[in-house]
From TrEMBL:
Keywords: Membrane, Transmembrane, Transmembrane helix. It is a multi-pass membrane protein. This is Protein DETOXIFICATION. GO terms for biological process: xenobiotic detoxification by transmembrane export across the plasma membrane. It comes from Carpinus fangiana. GO terms for molecular function: antiporter activity; xenobiotic transmembrane transporter activity. InterPro entries: MATE_euk, MATE_fam. Belongs to the multi antimicrobial extrusion (MATE) (TC 2.A.66.1) family. It is found in: Membrane.
Length: 406
C-alpha cells in the first residue's frame, strides 16, 4: 500500500512543478478510493494469518501469536490506506514540518500508552496492536484537520466526483509502484521467514528481528532522503529543470552514504553493548554480535538504495525498477541465500549474505540506469504525463532551459 501510494508521489510532485496545484486533491482522493478497496481485500490475509502461517510450515507458537496480533491490527491496515496518500500529498508541497510535529506528538503518546497497556496492564501483543492502531489514526485525523483548515490553498478545494474518473489508469500506475516497493520490502521479510526453518529457529528469528529493527531505524534516514529526492526530482522534472534534478540526485546519494558510514561506525564500536538492550538471552546476544558485520554492510548499502528508488519514483520508472527487483532479488539473491544458508550450512549468516548480494547487484543496476539517463528526455516525458492526467502545463517559460540544455 505504501508502494501504491508512491504513484501519487510521482503525479503530485510533477503537478506541483508544473503549477497544477488544483489537481493534487483529486489525485489524493483517487488514491484513497484505490487503497481503501485494496485494504478491504488485504484484510483477508490478516483474518487468516494463523492458518496460512501453519500451512507454510511455521511453528505452532509463532503462528498463533502472529494470528492474534494480525486480527487486532486490521484497523491499522485501513489507517495505512488513508495515511500514505495524505503523506504524499503533503510531501509534494514540501509541507514536511507539520508532518514532523504531528509524528513527534504521536511518538510521545505511543511510547506512554505502549508502556501502560503492554507492561503496566499486561495486555501483551493485544496492547501493542491497540496502541499502534490509535497512534496511526491520531496521525491521520491531525493531518486531515490541517488539510481541511485551508492551509493547502489550491491543492485542496474539497471532495470531488473527479476522484472516480480515469480510475483504471491510476490503478495501473499504483500497481506498478506497489510491485516495485513490495519486492523490496518482502525481500527482507523473507529473510526472517527463511530463518524460521533453521534448526535453532527461535534464536535465529530473535537475533534477526533485532538486526531488522536496527536496520529499520537506520533506514528511516534513508527513507527521508527517498521522500526528499523523489519530491525534488518530480518537482524539477515537472518544471522542466533536468539539470537541477540531476544535481539533487548527486547531493542526496553522497549525503545518505556518509550518514550510513557514520551509523555503521557507531554499531561496530558498541557491538558488545547494544545486543543486551534487546534481549537477556545470551545465545541471542552472541548471534547478534556475529551478525553485526553483515548489519553494518547492509546499513551502508541500504542508505544508498532507497535514494535511487526515490529517483525512480520521482521520474515515474516504477515498472522498470519492478523488473530489476525481480531479477536481482528473487532470481539471484534469494536462491544464493538459500544455497549458502542450507546447502553450505552457513545458517542465518549465509542466508543474509546471499540476499545482501542481491541488494548490491540491484543497487549497481540502478546506478547504471541513472547514469545513462537522458534527463532532458525525462523532463519531456513528465510534461506529457501531466497533460495526460491533468491538462496543459503551466510552465511555458521553463521550456527555454530545456531547449538550451538540449
Amino acid at each position: 500500500m505504501l508502494g501504491m501510494g508512491s504513484a501519487l508521489e510521482t503525479l503530485c510532485g510533477q503537478a506541483v512543478g508544473a503549477g497544477q496545484l488544483d489537481m493534487l486533491g483529486i489525485y489524493m482522493q483517487r488514491s484513497w478510493v484505490i487503497l481503501l478497496t485494496t485494504a478491504l481485500i488485504l484484510s483477508l490475509l490478516y483474518v487468516f494469518a494463523e492458518p496460512l502461517l501453519k500451512l507454510i510450515g511455521q511453528t505452532e507458537s509463532i503462528s498463533e501469536a502472529a494470528g492474534v496480533f494480525a486480527i487486532w491490527m486490521i484497523p491499522q491496515l485501513f489507517a495505512y490506506a488513508m495515511n500514505f496518500p495524505i503523506a504524499k500529498f503533503l510531501q509534494s508541497q514540501s509541507k514536511i514540518m507539520v508532518m514532523a510535529v504531528i509524528a513527534a506528538v504521536a511518538l510521545v503518546l505511543h511510547t506512554f500508552f505502549s508502556w501502560l497497556l503492554m507492561l503496566k496492564l499486561g495486555w501483551g501483543l493485544v496492547g501493542a496492536a491497540v496502541v499502534l492502531n490509535s497512534s496511526w489514526w491520531f496521525i491521520i485525523l491531525a493531518q486531515l484537520f490541517y488539510i481541511f483548515s485551508g492551509t493547502c490553498g489550491r491543492a485542496w478545494s474539497g471532495f470531488s466526483w473527479k476522484a472516480f474518473h480515469n480510475l483504471w489508469g491510476f490503478v495501473r500506475l499504483s500497481l506498478a509502484s506497489a510491485v516495485m516497493l513490495c519486492l523490496e520490502v518482502w525481500y527482507f521479510m523473507a529473510l526472517i521467514l527463511f530463518a524460521g526453518y533453521l534448526k535453532n529457529a527461535e534464536v535465529s528469528v530473535d537475533a534477526l528481528s533485532i538486526c531488522m529493527n536496527i536496520l529499520g531505524w537506520t533506514i528511516m534516514v534513508a527513507l527521508g532522503m527517498n521522500a526528499a529526492i523523489s519530491v525534488r526530482v518530480s518537482n524539477e522534472l515537472g518544471a522542466s529543470h533536468p539539470r537541477t534534478a540531476r544535481f539533487s540526485l548527486v547531493v542526496a546519494v553522497a549525503t545518505s552514504f556518509l550518514i550510513g558510514i557514520l551509523i555503521s561506525l557507531v554499531l561496530i564500536i558498541t557491538r558488545n553493548i547494544y545486543p543486551s538492550l534487546f534481549s537477556s538471552d545470551t545465545s541471542v546476544e552472541a548471534l547478534v554480535k556475529e551478525l553485526t558485520i553483515i548489519l553494518v554492510l547492509c546499513i551502508i548499502i541500504d542508505n544508498v538504495q532507497p535514494v535511487l528508488s526515490g529517483v525512480a519514483i520521482g521520474a515515474g520508472w516504477q515498472a522498470v525498477v519492478a523488473y530489476v527487483n525481480i531479477a536481482c532479488y528473487y532470481l539471484f539473491g534469494v536462491p544464493l541465500g538459500l544455497i549458502l544458508g542450507y546447502k553450505l550450512n552457513m545458517g542465518v549468516k549465509g542466508i543474509w549474505y546471499g540476499m545482501m548480494t542481491g541488494t548490491i547487484v540491484q543497487t549497481c543496476v540502478l546506478f547504471i540506469i541513472i547514469y545513462r539517463t537522458n534527463w532532458n528526455k525525462e523532463a519531456s516525458i513528465a510534461e506529457d504525463r501531466i497533460r495526460k492526467w491533468g491538462g496543459p502545463t503551466a510552465h511555458g517559460d521553463n521550456d527555454v532551459e530545456k531547449t538550451a540544455e538540449t
